[in-house]
Amino acid sequence: MASTQLLWGRWQSVSPENYDDLCINTIRFLAVDAVQQAKSGHPGAPLGAAPIAYALWDRVLKHNPRDPNWPDRDRFVLSPGHASALLYSLLHLTGYDLPLDELKRFRQWESMTPGHPEYGMTPGVEMTTGPLGQGFAHSVGMAIAERMLAERFNRPGFDVTDHRTYAIVSDGDLQEGVASEAASLAGTLRLGRLICLYDSNHISIEGNTDISFTEDVGARFQAYGWHVIGPIDGMDVDAVEGALRAAQEETDDPSLIICRTVIGFGSPNKQGTAAAHGEPLGEDEVRLTKKRLGWLHAEPFTVPQDAADHFGEALTRGQQWQDSWEALYASYQATHPAESAQLAEALAGNLPDGWDEDLKDLHDAGGSVSTRDASGRIVNAISKNVLSLAGGSADLAPSNKTLLTEEKHIGPGEFGGRNFHFGIREHAMGAIANGLALHGGVIPYTGTFLIFSDYMRPSIRLAALMGLRVIFVFTHDSVALGEDGPTHQPIEQLMGLRGVPNLVVFRPAEATENAGGWRAALERTDGPTVLALSRQNLTVFDRNIYAPASDARKGAYVLWQSSDEPDCILIATGSEVHVALEAGKSLQANGTPTRVVSMPSWELFDAQPDEYRSSVLPNDIRARVSVEAGTTFGWERYVGIDGESVGVDRFGASAPANVLYEKFGLTPERVVEAAKRVIVNLRDA
Ligand SMILES: Cc1ncc(C[n+]2csc(CCOP(=O)(O)OP(=O)(O)O)c2C)c(N)n1
Ligand SMILES: [Mg+2]
Q: Do both 304 and 416 map to the same domain?
């Protein structure tokens, strides 16, 4: 370990005049002390990556700690979220509204310093990280959004959107598949303003990365089309700064700067080993580490005045950046009032007045159209008014109907379009869509088959956790997709998605409900929406006969019922509403008054007032049957212990849709039988 020895030499002799050394140690020991105080956390990465973080934050990153939401700030993502203490040190020291007391409450209930960075909890935290690979993939989305806004709103002499996206990424990040997907697309798109610092310490939890990760990462990224710098000495601040400047110069392609670092740097007994990764150093080792690095302050959480003064310059720099941007923006407003107004609206995420006007009368009653085709028409109608709406599919646009037919495409170095080609990369598609939403100015949607929601579930979960407006379009939403068979037929996916907190799942019965789903999704500013859409055609309800389509927004509504007080309620979603309706009419014809409830969205229904909910599902009508072409697991919630559920509790099969519906019992006859059984059982009870 000759290089480590050499580094020891440099770091042993910290002199007070040397602000860099002092500041880096201040970052390190705030993090180490926070972890030690919490008796929980990860000291290794902050100790090792402090110099690269410092080089970026002190010398390069354009930000204003006083205004974490300044639109033209550089974005910074700490992809290894376990190194959160590093980020909290930086935020505190550079003057964000994160008091030292909050670092002392690291990982405690309702502190601003949760175990992993969480979006919305701490000023300056751009996203929630922790699931490795996601930070990196989201940063690709942020970098794309920056270019899209620049393309749409910048005018000659007015580069009002002109920033970069930086990420620190770790071994674990670059092992994860989602990072490979995102890196591949970032290379293709030539995202020259994306710069990633790779904290290459060759250590993860189980030991040296030699045991599982031996590829040449630089060569791999070069093959993706990235501009690769290094390996460089990640403990050498000047070298890191130099690499960052070189990366800035390279505007054609994204840059990866490979920084060789030492995990747990300075800890005599743990540095360079996995022991430094995920547990406090221990009181003794903290003392030894401080001694080793020449840190003279016995008291934990010490910020030497010289360090505080030096970091404080970030406030002055930040204000100057923002002031000059604001001056530019003011003259942009004066010379380009329309553009600046639109930019402000886009950044605020506002929808223009009358944005959904074109959705009226989009579909003829009595016609027959799949909800995916209807969605295609709807999204095209909305996109004409909502210019921030942009999205695409993971290579299934012709099937998902996600194409904006009159808009251009996003491609290599081309960001003026609104149609994405994510390639067959569902996981990164989700992450990139989230990154677009996080950046702001773009309202993203994605597309693939419902079955492949499994491939992007971690990104959907993060969208829900962060409360992002992202619209996930999933078509081919049941066994009714037919011949492609069980690998393509979703069974447990709908219910699985319903299990994600803060995710709205909307499965419309036909085109007019579908418009309600899109409306709800666009108007929902604090969380994502899944739209589950059919491959097969479905009759458009005549709303003169049935309840108004606008009721779909309530999540569930009485679509139709017998004139007499109903004996039973059939509750269905999506294509099975049509099965339930036929069953309901047949029950009525045979003397059993019935109510049919269309329930496109559990979550929207559950959010309604009690009064409304019990008007749709009155407590005293306990004979209930649910009908949905998916797992029945979970429907007890609405049918209760006396009810029954008609669904598919097995993997599907390859056959024409009508055959599958017969074989799986998704028929009006089966629903009628179930309803009769439930009614009889209740009477006999
Ligand atoms: C998707 C995912 N899988 C597993 C983990 C658990 N985990 C946290 S850190 C880590 C390894 C970290 O190694 P590295 O990324 O090199 O970070 P370092 O130890 O160098 O700080 C693992 C497996 C995780 N956070 N995310
Ligand atoms: Mg590592």
A: no
pLDDT average, residue stretch 644-673: 98
Q: Is residue 545 part of a domain?
A: no
**Cβ-based neighbour number of residue 558 at 10 Å:** 17
Cα 203 to ligand 1 centroid, rounded to whole Å: 10
Q: Is the pLDDT of residue 537 over 50?
A: yes
Q: Give per-residue pLDDT as tens, 363-372.
A: 889 999 999 9
Clarify whether residues 37 and 103 are in a common domain. Answer: yes
Q: Which residues line ligand 1 (CB under 6 A)?
A: 44-45, 80, 82-83, 130-132, 170-173, 176, 201, 203-205, 263, 277
504 and 587 housed in the same domain: no
| 497 plus 524 within the same structural domain | yes
- Residues whose CB is less than 8 angstroms from the CB of residue 343 and which lie 6 or more positions away in sequence, other chains included: 149, 152, 153, 160, 161, 441
| Core vs surface per residue 314-350: b (16+ CB within 10 A) or e | beebbeebbeebeebbeebbeebeebbebbeebbeee
Q: What is the pLDDT of residues 64-82, one digit of tens each?
A: 999 999 999 999 999 999 9
Shortest-distance Cα residue to atom 9 of ligand 1: 82
Closest CA to 577 of 597, 592, 558: 597
Q: Contact 132/100 with Cβ under 8 angstroms? A: no
Question: Which listed residue (102, 176, 426, 510) is catalytic?
Answer: 426
Residues 490 and 374 in one domain: yes
- Are 264 and 230 contained in the same domain? yes
Query: 595 and 493 in one domain?
Result: no
Note if 151 is an active site residue.
Answer: no
Q: Is residue 351 part of a domain?
A: no
Is 339 among the domain residues?
no
- Structural domain harbouring 650: 554-684
Cα separation, 516 vs 508, whole angstroms: 8
Question: Rounded to the nearest whole angstrom, what is the distance from the C-alpha of residue 50 to the centroid of ligand 2?
Answer: 14
Domain total in the chain: 3
Q: Which of 319, 347, 370 is the last residue of a domain?
A: 319
75-78, strands of its sheet edge to edge: 75-78, 165-170, 194-200, 255-260, 227-233
Largest Cα separation within the chain, whole Å, is 93
CA 451 to chain CA centroid, nearest Å: 19
Q: Do 478 and 588 sit in the same domain of this protein?
A: no
Q: Is residue 508 one of the residues assigned to a domain?
A: yes
Bridge partners of 527?
A: none
